[in-house]
């Protein structure tokens, strides 16, 4: 009898144990399913865990009832499905599916330059911004990362104020700088760069995720040749599902059309043949603009960005033309991968795109700018008027000549002493009119145009492939 009772008690105890394990599992699942929306509160503090659980559960019930509506709202607001982003860990790791040669490559970390990662943002969603920051912190070897500099370009979202400052204060090597008025991407980045203490500036967009091993190839390349601007391969993070698509095929390079719209191109055959292995960097005529690394001193030698560029758009081509014409180069490194959320549509307008591209054309395209004006017949007078207004001294069409202090000049081959950069570059390397088109190529004929960039003492071999854009 006693034996039977103790058996029953044993069974009962087992059943209770099983039940409690199941309950625990249920609560854990419930917690994990609702913890992400609470992530916005992580930096806020104040609420007790119990309160937070309670309100999360309430929120969750509400959201289950109308997730589609919330998703649509977040897409409407950010052009990115933030509802989904909020439910994905801020610390998720992207699998390193790069080519095996990239994964096998070893670096001498002590010989590599350090970097400051500069990230400007304007009204970015919490989870995409924070995931970018954590991704940099977690995918970059500490010995190479001097700091992350965040520049808040005068956002007005409440969560980007004290809540963000408080969150950031808990992270090592992350600094938050705020502009006093809306500056636009270019000036915001430049303000951030003034705080950088690393050897190399690495600019990232504010909704990115880095693949492990992303920074080493960029720093290695700049270590080999300081006058190189290096871009990672930009992988796609789906704006709706946040799935990460790694581009494992041969990377694309940047180009442009005569309206000065950035375009992607396959690697030209001539450059394909120049390479000795799949992991050699690939020369690129232009860059998309959001993600690149440049030696801080070389960037200063180049004259940084054109400060007259408003908001965004066009600055990427201007900097691309600038580096090639100033004797440097621009490359994509196939071993460096960074994911970027390409939004459903541009999250905010770029009304200054035309003005910005006119600046790029006027400064760097010399007589080729006529092709640009042929494609943009309307704005010529208006935008030129704007430029004149910006330069009342009447220095005509050469805006933003900046003074470069001697100490920033990287080598003896560069002009010494204070240099008015755009002009000195043009003098040193020749104006763009010295570029020659491939015989028979017609700028308006719809076929690709090859331009050859003369470089004193070197073979003029670099071809800039230009293809026609859509007709206006
Ligand atoms: Mn972006």
Unique ligands: manganese (II) ion
Query: Strand percentage, roughly?
Result: 15-25%
Radius of gyration: 26 Å
Class derived from helix and strand content: alpha/beta
Q: Give the helix level as a range of percent.
A: 25-40%
> What spatial form do the alpha-carbon principal axes imply?
globular
Helix tally?
Answer: 16
Query: Care to count the β-strands?
Result: 17
- Arithmetic mean of pLDDT: 73
Q: Residue ranges: pLDDT <50 for 5 or more in a row?
A: 32-55, 380-472
Major sheet, described briefly? 5 strands, mixed
In whole angstroms, the N-to-C terminal distance is: 95 Å
Biased composition (Basic and acidic residues): 48-68
Domain Glycosyltransferase 2-like: 116-299
Cofactor: Mn(2+)
Main location: Golgi
Task: Describe the overall structure.
- Its cofactor is Mn(2+).
- One of its GO terms (biological process) is protein O-linked glycosylation via N-acetyl-galactosamine.
- One of its GO terms (molecular function) is metal ion binding.
- The chain crosses the membrane at residues 12-29.
- This is Glycosyltransferase 2-like domain-containing protein.
- This protein has 472 residues and is an alpha/beta fold.
- The protein is 37% helix and 17% strand.
- It has 16 helices and 17 strands.
- The protein has helices spanning 2-34, 49-65, 67-78, 82-85, 100-104, 126-139, 162-169, 184-193, 215-224, 269-274, 296-302, 315-325, 353-364, 369-375, 380-390, 421-429, and strands at residues 115-121, 145-152, 174-178, 200-204, 208-210, 228-237, 244-245, 253-256, 262-265, 282-283, 292-295, 329-341, 403-404, 419-420, 436-437, 449-452, 463-466.
- Strands 3-2-1-4-11 form a 5-stranded mixed β-sheet. Strands 5, 6, 7, 10 and 12 form a 5-stranded mixed β-sheet that branches.
- β6 and β7 form a beta hairpin.
- α1 (2-34) packs across α2, α12 runs parallel beside α13 and α13 crosses α15.
- The radius of gyration is 26 Å and the shape is globular.
- The N and C termini lie far apart (95 Å).
- The site of manganese (II) ion (MN) has 4 residues, from loops.
């Amino acid at each position: 009898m006693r034996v039977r009772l103790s058996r029953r008690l044993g069974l009962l105890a087992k059943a209770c144990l099983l039940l409690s394990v199941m309950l625990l599992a249920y609560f854990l699942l419930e917690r994990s399913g609702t913890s992400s929306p609470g992530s916005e509160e992580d930096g806020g503090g104040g609420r007790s865990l119990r309160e937070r659980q309670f309100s999360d559960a309430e929120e969750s019930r509400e959201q289950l009832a109308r997730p589609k509506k919330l998703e649509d709202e977040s897409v409407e607001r950010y052009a990115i499905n933030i509802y989904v982003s909020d439910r994905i860990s801020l610390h998720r790791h992207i699998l390193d599916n790069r080519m095996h040669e990239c994964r096998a490559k070893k670096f001498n970390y002590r010989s590599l330059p350090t970097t400051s990662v500069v990230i400007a943002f304007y009204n970015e969603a919490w989870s995409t911004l924070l995931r970018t920051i954590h991704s940099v912190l977690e995918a970059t070897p500490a010995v190479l990362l001097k700091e992350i500099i965040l520049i808040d370009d005068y956002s007005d979202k409440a969560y980007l104020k004290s809540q963000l400052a408080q969150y950031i204060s808990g992270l090592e090597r992350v600094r938050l700088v705020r502009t006093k008025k809306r500056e636009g991407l270019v000036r915001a980045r430049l303000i951030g760069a003034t705080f950088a203490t690393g050897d190399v500036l690495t600019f990232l967009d504010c909704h990115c995720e880095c693949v492990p091993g992303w920074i080493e190839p960029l720093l290695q390349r700049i270590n080999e040749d300081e006058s190189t601007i290096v871009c990672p391969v930009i992988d796609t993070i789906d704006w709706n599902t946040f799935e990460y698509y790694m581009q494992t095929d041969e990377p694309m390079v940047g180009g442009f059309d005569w309206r000065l719209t950035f375009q992607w191109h396959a690697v030209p055959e001539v450059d394909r043949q120049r390479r000795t292995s799949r992991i050699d960097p690939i020369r690129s005529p232009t860059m998309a603009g959001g993600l690149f690394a440049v030696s801080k001193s070389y960037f200063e030698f180049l004259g940084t960005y054109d400060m007259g560029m408003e908001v965004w758009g066009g600055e990427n081509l201007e900097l691309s033309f600038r580096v090639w014409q100033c004797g440097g180069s621009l490359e994509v490194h196939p071993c460096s991968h960074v994911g970027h959320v390409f939004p459903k549509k541009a999250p905010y307008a770029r009304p200054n795109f035309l003005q910005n591209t006119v600046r790029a054309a006027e400064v760097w395209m010399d007589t080729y700018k006529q092709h640009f004006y042929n494609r943009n017949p309307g704005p010529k007078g208006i935008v030129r008027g704007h430029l004149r207004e910006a330069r009342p001294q009447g220095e005509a069409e050469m805006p933003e000549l900046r003074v470069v202090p001697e100490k920033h000049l990287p080598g003896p081959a560069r002009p010494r002493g204070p240099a008015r950069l755009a002009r000195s570059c043009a003098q040193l390397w020749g104006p763009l009119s010295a570029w020659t088109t491939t015989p028979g190529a017609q700028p308006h004929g719809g076929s690709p145009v090859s331009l050859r960039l003369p470089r004193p003492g070197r073979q003029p071999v670099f071809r800039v492939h230009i293809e026609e854009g859509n007709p206006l």
